[in-house]
Design a protein that fits this description.
- The complex is a heterodimer of chains A (282) and B (302).
- In chain A, 72% of the residues lie in helices and 4% in strands.
- With 282 residues, chain A is mainly alpha-helical.
- Chain A has a domain at 54-248: MetI-like (MetI-like fold), CATH 1.10.3720.10.
- The longest helix of chain A is centred in the first third of the chain and has 33 residues, at 50-82.
- Chain B has helices spanning 2-24, 35-60, 64-67, 82-90, 93-124, 130-139, 149-158, 166-173, 177-187, 191-199, 204-215, 217-232, 236-242, 251-262, 267-301.
- Chain B is globular.
- Chain B has 302 residues and is mainly α.
- The chains are: A mainly alpha (282), B mainly alpha (302).
- At the A-B interface, helix 1, helix 3, helix 4, helix 5 and helix 6 of A face helix 1, helix 2, helix 5, helix 7 and helix 8 of B.
Chain lengths: 282, 302
């Protein structure tokens, strides 16, 4: 009885749609509601769709740069703010703040700061004599700009998880290493960092899932452009299924959605495999 | 959905780390020689991190002429409120604000009630199939919102929800994260307390309302804040569900759907409304940061 409300909600609005996602992905469903079975037609279209593969590559590049760089920065800041430092609570709050700002606000702020002709970034680069960078018209730099904005938004998360991990590191282990003559860097590399393993693992999974599913910041900032150069897989799923005017190719969009689900499933499976093998070695 | 849950986890970890600091206090006194250097680094990083938010504020109060004139203008040289007034006059910004507030509030109420009840059941009640059920619910956490948006859209139409704010509220309330938080909290409540109530003749529901609920104010506060902030910022599903009717827009949808198209070369306007949207969550965060920490710290002791 206590469970009923939550289970009904999840069953109706999550599990049922998941089943129908598979069903619709085998249909040709247009915006007016007309439909027919197309078998694997949508999936054949998917694997031969260059834009789908481009969006997969974009998501891969985005993940490859946002996840490790964000974690390294977060770890550095956590180490810096873990020691005795006046005002460190204030520093932590400031670094955490971007995380409570919505993806849309972050995205439009990013679009303005990276505005090619009037944005702050090109203005300040210009003031030290660097020619304006084509953040909006060049695909490479557009990708760089969404990566930078995402790092700004996410680094507080990495910092906080690492801070929590650092609190769990027993200071006496550090002292023992110091007595044994380890330098600061050696102490960090050989003692502290291995002890942060669970934090690193947790962050890797959370950040990979986040980067893989990123939508609101990127959509508000670039709409996936120029061309498809910053279109991620989930933006592509949205773009094929809907646009500002309403539903588009729903069957094909559902197939993209199923592909996204299966990839998420694979990431989770790898996570489970790793975490169970880690539990055994511990 | 993933963004919300990531944010929720992060906030909890945040309070954890801040809480532990409060207990541990200053730990090492060595490295004092680097103090100046480390302080300088911390200040530099904080300035870089805060600057974009400062830029949003500055832009919101600057005239278009200043923003689009060559050179760097680091503060509003000609202070103006027109960036707020113009979009509020030309677009139903107040209506968007009301929609955001209504959707976030109702979603929070439904989510918190469902999650509290389910968390209690998983922590304290015995029934068949408890663990498999828990695993099934757990697995729904990693379903990406975009994987199921097409069927969710068809479902909203079939249920007659499409065209009103319930098309957002109900699917957004179908979340599981709070169940884990609640379960963790309830496990810490001693069984003897519940048994005492039952000996006195109280049923499950009575026990829950009169014994358990009064104990879980900190949990309620945390769940309510996290859910509300997540829903206030929600974008992916509302974009699909609400785009058909401008009267239903929330602030994020209004900004992306209307303002961005209208003010492509007048960013002061967009920054002003973004600031209006951001301010409530920042105030909530700053106000309740300490309460968060205390609430979780106390719940840990019990």
């Amino acid at each position: 009885m206590f469970l009923l409300p939550n289970i009904v909600m999840i069953a109706v609005f999550t599990l049922l749609p998941l089943i129908f996602a598979f069903v619709i992905s085998f249909q040709n469903l247009d915006s007016l509601g007309g439909w027919s079975w197309v078998g694997f037609g949508n999936y054949v279209k998917l694997v031969t769709d260059p834009v789908f593969w481009q969006s997969m590559t974009n998501t891969g590049i985005f993940t490859l740069f946002t996840v490790p760089v964000g974690m390294i920065l977060g770890l550095g800041i956590a180490v810096l703010l873990n020691g005795v430092l006046p005002g460190r609570t204030l520093f932590r709050s400031i670094i955490f703040l971007p995380l409570v700002v919505s993806g849309v606000a972050t995205g439009v702020l990013g679009a303005w700061m990276f505005d090619q002709s009037n944005g702050f970034i090109n203005r300040i680069l210009g003031s030290v004599g660097i020619a304006p960078t084509a953040w909006q018209s060049d695909g490479f730099w557009a990708m760089a700009s969404i990566i930078l904005v995402t790092l700004w938004q996410r680094v507080g998360f990495d910092m906080l998880i690492y801070l929590a991990g650092l609190q769990g590191v027993d200071p006496s282990v550090q002292e023992a290493a110091t007595v044994d003559g380890a330098t600061g860097w050696q102490r960090f590399r050989l003692v502290t960092f291995p002890l942060l393993g669970p934090s690193t693992f947790f962050l890797l999974i959370m950040n990979m899932i986040y980067s893989f599913q990123v939508f609101d910041t990127v959509w508000a900032m670039t709409r996936g452009g120029p061309g498809f150069s910053t279109t991620t897989v989930v933006s592509y799923a949205y773009r094929t299924s809907f646009d500002e005017h309403g539903p588009q190719l729903l069957g094909y969009g559902a197939a993209v959605g199923v592909a996204i689900y299966l990839i998420s499933l694979a990431i989770t499976a790898i996570q489970w495999r790793f975490s169970s093998s880690r539990d055994q070695t511990d | 959905m993933s963004l919300t849950s990531a944010f929720e986890v992060s906030s909890i970890e945040a309070t954890k780390s801040m809480e532990v600091t409060a207990v541990t206090g200053p730990r090492r006194k060595s490295h004092g020689k680097f103090l100046g250097l480390r302080l300088a680094a911390a200040i530099t990083i904080s300035l870089v991190m805060f600057f974009p938010l400062y830029w949003m504020i500055t832009t919101a109060f600057s005239t278009r002429a200043d923003l689009y004139a060559p050179g760097l203008h680091l503060w509003p040289e000609h202070f103006t409120l027109s960036n707020f007034i113009d979009p509020i006059v030309r677009f139903p910004v107040w209506k968007w604000f009301q929609n955001s507030l209504a959707i976030a509030t109702l979603t929070t109420i439904i989510t918190v009630i469902c999650n509290l009840l389910a968390g209690y059941a998983f922590a304290k009640l015995k029934f068949r199939g408890k663990n498999p059920l828990f695993l099934v619910l757990l697995s729904t956490m990693m379903i990406p919102a975009q994987a199921i948006m097409v069927p969710q859209f068809k479902l909203a139409i079939a249920l007659g929800l499409y065209g009103n704010i319930w098309s957002v509220i109900l699917p957004e309330s179908a979340v599981i994260f709070g169940v884990f938080l609640a379960r963790q909290f309830f496990i810490a409540i001693p069984d003897e307390l519940l048994e005492a109530a039952r000996v006195d003749g109280a049923g499950h529901l009575r026990t829950f309302v009169s014994v358990v609920l009064p104990l879980c104010k900190p949990l309620l506060a945390v769940l309510t804040l996290l859910t509300f902030m997540g829903e206030w910022n929600a974008f992916g599903w509302p974009l699909v569900a609400l785009s058909g009717d401008p009267a239903l827009f929330t602030l994020p949808i209004g900004i992306v759907g209307d303002l961005q198209g209208q003010y492509t070369s007048n960013y002061g306007r967009i920054m002003a409304i973004s600031l209006l949207m951001t301010l409530p969550v920042v105030i909530l965060f700053i106000t309740f940061q300490k309460y968060f920490v205390e609430g979780l710290a106390r719940s840990g002791i019990k």
